[in-house]
């Protein structure tokens, strides 16, 4: 096979020989003055251009002094792993943490070719071992790898404008597809640490109203495809969701389903483990793009619900006077406050830092009590979409029945449907009943268990409602009696008298109380 890389070595001419010497004896430059060296370089290049019509582009693993690997190099690596390893004769196997099988890539000094729009290009992987005078315990880590792309100069435009773009886009997509999804958690001392994210939830098994589900899926799709749109409207490529609803309605399951649908990493941010606003910023800047940042039970995480209101109120409090008198106490209090994440710090992050760091991120808050949250936290713009996760409806039940019992229809569904409408049962409770308790229990037995549980829940709810209304009535009565007693005390009459008066007048208005505190009933005779 004719390969230009090899052709280079086969030049028997003086030019080839000179070029060969340059490559084989790179130290020759040390013995030649710089002016002559530059002249020689130019001459060699001119001659090479005449006889060697190929263009070479080098993509290094590390660019300049940067410690991080070049994104371009990694994208090419992924591209070549998928497209070239089948044609490569020498492969390199790398064991990747949390991956079950080793990942194969082109071995060092290996070459492969491919066709792009009927143009042939050659890729080669190369390794440069830098000469080092210092002793290193890990000499291998100093190897510098790079990819070489070779093509005929007639195709320069096609390769530089289309092919490289194609390789990078495809390479990034392949890398994203093949990566191990991660679940990050934060801890006070180490920042983020991660484990593989292996939650099996998906939108197919998520029980909820199908229309609502479709709407969420479309929203996510639109978000992932919206890079240009977000750039056009000048908005950071981020989206905020608020999931709210009673415990066991599937909020956490929904986040897992979203992460699996998008193939995003998940950052589970525990606000109570964040020391202060500065630490919060640091953690959030460290999150990568294509990720979901979730803050569960935001109402319980911190006093994010009303810190601003409370602070304002505190200014007028007597407590402050006490602190002013005791500076030590004040200092301790200030320290305690500054060692916490505050609502304003949090909001600043969402509006400011959040917008500045790398895009394609989703932030999700969950809460059981949406009404308790500070409106500033969940206003439009910060939280783009609110999703209510509610009690199990019949449509959601059908999905659970399919997941757990492998049935799409059953005569007992007719009994279950109205019961679900009359009771508030969470999907978590429904699934509990749909799971066979023993080997003898078949689908029908599970459905009967569910019917019993629904009936019991309905009975319980009725009993509770009755008790509540009785308690309310009792409370109202007690309030009325104590009000009458209070009034009697103030007016000096007996409670019975007040009651009688009250019954006649229907209550005494404040204006009708004389200066000496005696109530004058306004009775029309
Ligand atoms: N909508 C649902 N679809 C499928 N399974 C569900 C759904 N809701 C709850 N479940 C089941 O119930 C379990 C608990 O649900 P999940 O943890 O998602 O509830 P939650 O709303 O996050 O509750 P909490 O408010 O207590 O955090 C899940 O593991 C899942 O098996
Ligand atoms: Mg949850």
Ions and ligands: adenosine-5'-triphosphate, magnesium ion
Segments where pLDDT lies below 50 for 5+ residues?
Answer: 7-12, 137-141, 305-316, 334-339, 502-525
CATH architecture of the largest domain: 3-Layer(aba) Sandwich
Q: CATH class of the largest domain, please? A: Alpha Beta
Report the principal-axis shape: elongated
Give the helix level as a range of percent: 40-55%
* Computed CA radius of gyration, to the nearest angstrom: 36 Å
- The total of helices stands at 20
Catalytic activity: ATP + H2O = ADP + phosphate + H(+)
Organism: Eucalyptus grandis (Flooded gum)
Biased composition (Acidic residues): 315-324
Cofactor: Mg(2+)
Question: What this model shows, in words?
Answer:
- The protein is α/β, with parallel strands linked by helices and 525 residues long.
- The chain has four domains: 4-129 and 142-182, no CATH class; 183-314 and 338-388, P-loop containing nucleotide triphosphate hydrolases (Rossmann fold); 410-476, no CATH class; 492-525, no CATH class.
- It is 49% helix and 15% strand.
- The protein contains 20 helices and 13 strands.
- It has a seven-stranded mixed beta sheet.
- The chain is elongated, with a radius of gyration of 36 Å.
- The N and C termini lie far apart (121 Å).
- Mean pLDDT is 78; it is low at 7-12, 137-141, 305-316, 334-339 and 502-525.
- Bound molecules: adenosine-5'-triphosphate (ATP) and magnesium ion.
- Magnesium ion (MG) binds next to helix 8.
């Amino acid at each position: 096979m004719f390969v230009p890389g090899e052709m280079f070595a086969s030049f028997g001419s003086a030019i080839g020989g000179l070029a060969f010497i340059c490559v084989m004896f790179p130290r020759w430059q040390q013995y030649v003055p710089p002016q002559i060296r530059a002249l020689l370089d130019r001459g060699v290049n001119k001659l090479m251009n005449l006889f060697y019509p190929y263009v070479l582009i080098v993509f290094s693993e590390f660019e300049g002094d940067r410690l991080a690997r070049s994104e371009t190099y990694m994208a090419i690596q992924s591209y070549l792993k998928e497209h070239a390893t089948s044609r490569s004769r020498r492969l390199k196997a790398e064991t990747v943490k949390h991956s079950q099988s080793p990942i194969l890539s082109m071995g060092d000094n290996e070459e492969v070719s491919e066709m792009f729009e009927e143009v042939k290009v050659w890729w080669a992987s190369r390794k440069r071992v830098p000469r080092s005078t210092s002793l290193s315990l890990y000499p291998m880590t100093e190897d510098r790898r790079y990819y070489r792309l070779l093509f005929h100069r007639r195709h320069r435009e096609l390769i530089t404008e289309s092919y490289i773009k194609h390789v990078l886009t495809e390479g990034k997509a392949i890398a994203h597809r093949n990566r191990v999804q991660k679940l990050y958690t934060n801890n006070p001392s180490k920042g983020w640490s991660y484990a593989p994210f292996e939650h099996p939830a998906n939108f197919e098994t998520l029980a909820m109203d199908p229309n609502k589900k479709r709407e969420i899926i479309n929203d996510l799709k639109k978000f992932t495809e919206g890079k240009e749109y977000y750039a056009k409207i000048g908005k950071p490529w981020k989206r905020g969701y608020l999931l709210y609803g009673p415990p066991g309605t599937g909020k956490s399951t929904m986040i897992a389903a979203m992460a699996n649908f998008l193939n995003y990493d998940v950052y589970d941010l525990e606000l109570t483990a964040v020391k202060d606003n500065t630490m919060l910023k640091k953690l959030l800047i460290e999150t990568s793009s294509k990720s979901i940042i979730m803050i569960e039970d935001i109402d319980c995480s911190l006093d994010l619900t009303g810190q601003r209101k409370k602070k304002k109120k505190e200014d007028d409090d007597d407590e402050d006077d006490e602190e002013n008198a005791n500076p030590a106490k004040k200092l301790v209090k200030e320290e305690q406050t500054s060692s916490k994440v505050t609502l304003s710090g949090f909001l600043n992050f969402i509006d400011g830092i959040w917008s500045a760091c790398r895009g394609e991120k989703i932030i999700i808050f969950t809460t059981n009590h949406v009404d308790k949250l500070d409106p500033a936290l969940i206003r439009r713009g910060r939280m783009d979409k609110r999703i209510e996760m509610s009690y199990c409806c019949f449509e959601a039940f059908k999905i659970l029945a399919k997941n757990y019992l492998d049935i799409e229809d059953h005569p007992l569904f007719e009994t279950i449907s109205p019961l679900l409408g009359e009771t508030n049962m969470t999907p978590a409770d429904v699934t509990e009943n749909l799971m066979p308790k023993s080997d003898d229990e078949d689908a029908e037995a599970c459905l009967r268990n569910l019917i019993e549980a629904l009936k019991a829940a309905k009975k319980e709810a009725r009993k509770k409602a009755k008790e509540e209304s009785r308690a309310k009535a009792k409370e109202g009565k007690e309030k009325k009696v104590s009000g009458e007693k209070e009034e009697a005390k103030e007016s000096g009459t007996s409670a019975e008298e007040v009651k009688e008066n009250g019954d006649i007048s229907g209550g005494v208005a404040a204006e009708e109380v004389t200066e000496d505190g005696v109530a004058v009933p306004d009775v029309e005779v």
